[in-house]
């Protein structure tokens, strides 16, 4: 025969009270997170996941936000994007790395989605640059997006500095340059054009 003692009665009452509490929905503790830390997002409404590279996450969203054009983010778990520097660009949202402006082009500004082509009379032999070089005396750049200036020879051996008109037969008062190439560090042989 079983007799309830005051201690057993109290324990039974406590178990009954706990059973009457609301129980978690399906999924238990894996149910929807109320908030995720900055640099992460709520994946499938169940877990906080580090923000993927190329995106930012403020912690209160279930969708990473891609970095806009002109911005990038190489790291995971980020809350902000980085600006491209002069000479570089990103032309797609969600970029993880900036792209260098190719030879024949330049970009003098930061946070850009494109590069400018070298106009006539200017050239750029190297990639990732924020400036252009003007042609030297006796050299010309007759097209756009010029990588290398043309050495004027033959019946048209002359050209003014910054010449986009091409080589000419009339003598010029400038002293002809033997070469017109950039140094390894990008230094122009003549005038440097910025902006």
TrEMBL record:
It comes from the Eukaryota. Keywords: Signal. Residues 1-20 form the signal peptide. This is Uncharacterized protein. It comes from Favolaschia claudopus. The lineage of its organism: Eukaryota, Fungi, Dikarya, Basidiomycota, Agaricomycotina.
